[in-house]
Design brief:
The complex is a heterodimer of chains A (about 575) and B (about 325). Chain A is built from 28 helices and no strands. Chain A is an all-alpha fold. Chain A has a single domain, classed as MetI-like fold (Orthogonal Bundle), CATH 1.10.3720.10. The two termini of chain A are about 40 Å apart. With about 325 residues, chain B is of the alpha+beta class. In chain B, the strands form four sheets. Chain B has a six-stranded mixed sheet with strand order 6-7-8-3-9-10, sandwiched between helices. A five-stranded antiparallel sheet of chain B has the order 13-17-14-15-16, with no helix packed on it. Chain B has a four-stranded antiparallel sheet with strand order 2-1-4-5, with helices on one face. The chains are: A mainly alpha (about 575), B alpha+beta (about 325). At the A-B interface, helix 11 and helix 12 of A face helix 2 and helix 4 of B. The structure holds adenosine-5'-diphosphate and magnesium ion.
Chain lengths: ~575, ~325
């Protein structure tokens, strides 16, 4: 019976699409082509032409001028050593976390896990705000430190140490996601084998487990490298005048209209990102140890019998807990504190909704919230439509078009956000015929468009991956029953994909409400988003403003928490790294 | 010598091993046999130190090792999936124990090639485990476990990942190595044939308890209870009305296939009865007859030249009194 249905369906699918459907298809194809050309290739091209094809000077002169500028040189140097240092410190903390959660039996690991997961919901500018709030000159932790060591410089959390500390604890989310998944796949019997040959648990961890997951350690290290390399919120809020990084330079050069130099630096970041991406691909291809045991024993957590080792592991694990939990708890707690309490108390004396009322009651403070939500939804909705169509092209047709679309839509994954931003500025700072002769720079639409570019790779990848998983026979069965392509799409494909679409949209929303870098380049008074508003309040000395920043941060965290918890149930972190 | 005294193991409040004691002598090949889930692996891991019993003591060579972690017990372990370190070469796998013990380079260079030679994988020293066949991996696992000169070796179902042919080859090889090096081996399997073929002594386990310990022959010819009887070798239960004096003695009678003899009773106290033939399975050297007597189904054996006849043919058989395996009805 089903063979018959299939045969009928196949014979029909060879027929061309019905006329109205075909016209719609061609329109959609044209729209997709326009979007890809206008918002991917033209901005990228603009960056190259601006960097290399200036009328009055050569690219060599641009490079020479950059190299001659002392602040650029120091930003480059800062960026490189900070990136290297971050990769090392994040690995120390991240590897320890993974071991404490998955390898050693540590008391209270359920609570530890929640604390170690906070970088997933407490990221970017929100987290930096929280860190600044508790460790900054009037922060609770600084109060405590000053109480214990009266001579301490209250401004200790500042400059490169603050940036390194923030990086170290806020960039462990890749370890949390990917490395934990990897260590769970290690054959526990190999650990026991090592122990039966005289190795202590610690030795087995270092000599057996870590080498086996080395490819994943490399991969997450590269992701950390990228994140540190393109860090903007941390140096902008914590670095102060004496510690600046590359993205700040690009932002600064752009604001003084030296866009040739900004473009050149952005391309440098882009080139490094591309190299990192290729390295990631190479690592994932050469998964060397998949040929291990045919029937691996699932990882189990080991009780440390050596009292010294046990005490060390437990206390370091709980120290990390304190470091992770403090900024989050204080941010939430003080968002409910009277604003005068923020500047003076270590703990709020009483709790109130006053700050929330203030934020939601005033147009000026409500606006960034509304802006971020609306612009994120606009971007997500547009990209959903695009991804559904593109996903179908990619998965159902093995044509050149499918390949080109797939490749094109993946490009933004490799590009640093600042490069995307510079590209949009350069392409649309003057009337552009591709968008009907409009200027995007300074318009409301510039941010939703840029947001869309940021989330395209992730959404297209995940949606087309789940389209591959759909049984084509269902679609064909509907076709055999006389349903046209649009009807089939609406009644079969869409309902089946709905859970994935919702999940992917939620993840994108989480990224966008936390977005800082692209926002910093492109926002204007019409569309000031949440990330920018948080950063402004974070650095304010006025407790009223600080309170509003804490309210924003708490709200963003709450939304992220719900989204990430939901996503975790659907297997976050199990997909290959370069696919997401 | 390995001795377990009154071992209790509980997982999440569930008792898996109950007051279990046993002792294995030096140079003995000792097998734990039982259905899956009965606690064999748990008991073996109690010896190696990976499982901490909630009560009881473990002695190895007279020393109480109960409190020692696995790395300090000096026991070799061969794992069911071999557990070769996937990122190390065969050579490095075998050298691992020596390196961990801080052996000198000269000693490693001397001993590892010899160990590889002895088990016949010297040609593969530079390969990664994934490049080896199952049998070769097995050999490397054994060499690795023996490199520190341990005299005690534990195996947990080492042959279960091999195909039937290789299983017999490796079985004999393991026994050879054990004899040659004078090892004390505790070997876990759920395969009674394997246990009978390889062991000096077998402990039959069920539900966390030892039901019987004895030589393979003793277990086969004189099983202590119904469980041991039905778990080892093939048996048929005789209908109780065939037993003389069955009204008074509440006993269950079992009989091995080779003891259901074809033909009418020969001696006075033989139990003779008629059966009908249900099925004949030709096995080459022998054939297996499936017979029915009333509601009871009986398995018998016959030489391969025996002409059994068509299905439903009537076949007279008899069983000698001395061949009956009798258990109290209560024993279960
Ligand atoms: N780590 C563990 N946690 C909880 N229960 C376990 C664990 N290991 C084994 N068990 C249970 O103990 C019983 C005996 O298991 P095991 O020793 O592996 O049996 P065998 O090796 O004889 O098949 C089984 O019921 C099993 O589910
Ligand atoms: Mg087992």
């Amino acid at each position: 019976m089903s063979a018959l249905v299939n045969a009928v369906a196949r014979s029909q699918s060879r027929l061309s699409w019905p006329q109205p459907g075909r016209i719609l298809y061609l329109c959609a194809l044209a729209a997709l082509a326009w979007a890809i050309i206008t918002f991917l290739y033209v901005p990228l091209g603009s960056v190259f032409t601006t960097a290399f094809l200036q009328e009055d000077h050569t690219a060599g002169e641009t490079i020479a001028r950059l190299a001659g500028a002392r602040n650029v040189r120091s930003a480059l140097w800062n960026t490189f050593w900070m990136t290297g240092a971050t990769v090392i410190t994040v690995n120390i903390v991240g590897l320890f976390q993974v071991a404490a959660l998955e390898f050693f039996k540590v008391r209270g690991s359920g609570i530890l896990k929640i604390a170690y997961a906070t970088p997933l919901v407490f990221g970017s500018v929100t987290a930096i705000t929280g860190y600044n709030f508790v460790y900054g000159s009037s922060g609770a932790v600084t109060d405590l430190l000053a109480y214990v060591f009266p001579g301490i410089d209250r401004n200790w959390f500042h400059g490169w140490p603050a940036v390194l500390i923030a990086h170290t604890f806020l960039m462990t989310q890749y370890h949390f996601l990917f490395l934990r998944a990897a260590i769970r796949r290690v054959d526990f019997a190999t650990v026991e084998a090592a122990r039966s040959l005289g190795a202590s648990p610690m030795r087995a961890l270092v000599q057996i487990v870590f080498p086996v997951i080395l490819p994943t350690i490399f991969a997450v290290s590269l992701l950390v490298l990228l994140a540190a390399l393109t860090s903007l919120a941390a140096p902008a809020i914590l670095g102060g005048r004496e510690f600046r990084m590359l993205n700040q330079m690009i932002l600064g050069l752009n604001s003084i209209r030296r866009q040739d130099m900004a473009a050149m630096l952005a391309l440098l970041l882009g080139a490094i990102s591309l190299a990192v991406f290729l390295a990631l691909r190479w690592i994932e291809r050469g998964q060397r140890y998949v040929g291990g045991a045919k029937t691996p024993i699932p990882m189990q957590r080991i009780v440390l019998k050596n009292p010294v080792a046990s005490a060390l592991v437990q206390s370091f694990a709980w120290l990390l807990f304190v470091i992770y939990a403090t900024p989050v708890l204080f941010t939430i707690l003080f968002s409910f504190a009277p604003s005068r309490s923020i500047a003076t108390d270590i703990f709020p004396r009483n709790l109130t909704l006053e700050n929330y009322r203030a934020v939601f009651g005033a147009q000026q403070t409500l606006e960034p919230l509304v802006n971020s939500v609306i612009m994120s939804i606009m971007a997500i909705f547009a990209v959903l439509l695009l991804a559904l169509f593109a996903g179908r092209l990619i998965t159902r047709t093995r044509s050149l078009i499918g390949g080109v679309v797939e490749f094109s839509l993946f490009i933004p994954w490799i590009l640093p956000s600042s490069l995307v931003a510079i590209g949009i500025i350069l392409a649309f700072d003057a009337p552009n015929p591709l968008i009907g002769g409009e200027v995007l720079l300074g318009s409301y639409a510039i941010l939703p468009i840029a947001y869309g570019i940021l989330i395209v790779p992730m959404m297209v990848r995940l949606i087309s991956a789940s389209m591959v998983g759909l049984d084509p026979a269902l679609d064909e069965a509907a076709q055999a029953l006389g349903a046209g392509p649009l009807r089939r799409f609406a009644s079969i494909t869409l309902p089946l994909l709905a859970p994935v679409l919702i999940l992917v949209s939620a993840l994108a929303f989480n990224d966008l409400v936390n977005e800082y870098t692209v926002s910093a380049f492109l926002y204007n008074p019409n569309n000031r988003p949440l990330g920018i508003a948080i950063a402004v309040f974070a650095t304010a000395n006025d407790p009223e403003a600080l309170a509003k920043g804490l309210v924003y941060a708490t709200l963003v965290m709450g939304v992220s928490f719900i989204i990430i918890m939901t996503a975790d149930r659907f297997g976050l972190g199990r997909a290959p790294i370069t696919a997401a | 010598m390995i001795e377990l005294q009154e071992i209790d193991v509980t997982f999440d409040g569930k008792r898996v091993i109950e007051k279990l004691s046993l002792s294995v002598s030096d140079g003995e090949f000792f097998t734990l046999l039982g259905p899956s889930g009965c606690g064999k692996t748990t008991l073996l891991r109690t010896v190696s130190g990976f499982v901490n019993p909630s009560a009881g003591r473990v002695y190895i060579n007279g020393q109480d090792v109960s409190a020692r972690p696995p790395e300090d017990r000096g026991i070799g372990v061969v794992f069911q999936n071999y557990a070769l370190f996937p990122h190390m070469s065969v050579y490095d796998n075998v050298a691992y124990g020596l390196r961990t013990a801080g052996a000198s380079r000269a000693r490693i260079r001397d001993e590892v090639p010899r160990a590889l030679e002895r088990i016949g994988v010297a040609d593969h020293a530079r390969k990664k485990p994934a490049e080896l066949s199952g049998g070769q991996q097995q050999r490397v696992a054994i060499a690795r476990a023996l490199i520190l000169g341990t005299k005690v070796l534990l195996f947990d179902e080492p042959l279960s990942n091999l195909d039937a042919k290789l299983r017999e080859v490796m079985r004999d090889e393991i026994r050879d190595i054990q004899t040659r090096l004078g090892l004390t081996v505790i070997y876990v399997t759920h395969d009674q044939q394997e246990a009978l073929a390889i062991s000096d002594r077998i402990a039959v386990m069920n539900a966390g308890k030892i039901r019987q310990i004895g030589s393979p022959r003793a277990l086969y010819t004189a099983p202590a209870d119904r469980f041991a009887c039905t778990f080892i070798g093939e048996t048929s239960r005789l209908p109780s009305h065939l037993l003389p004096g069955h009204a008074d003695v509440k006993k269950e009678a079992y009989v091995r296939p080779e003891h259901i003899r074809i033909g009418a009773a020969e001696k006075n106290d033989d139990l003779g009865f008629e059966t009908s033939l249900e099925r004949v399975t030709f096995l080459g050297a022998r054939q297996r007859l499936q017979l029915r007597h009333g509601n009871a189904r009986l398995i018998a054996e016959a030489p391969s030249d025996f002409i059994a006849g068509a299905p439903d043919a009537v076949i007279a058989v008899h069983v000698r009194r001395s061949d009956l395996l009798l258990f109290d009805e209560a024993s279960a």
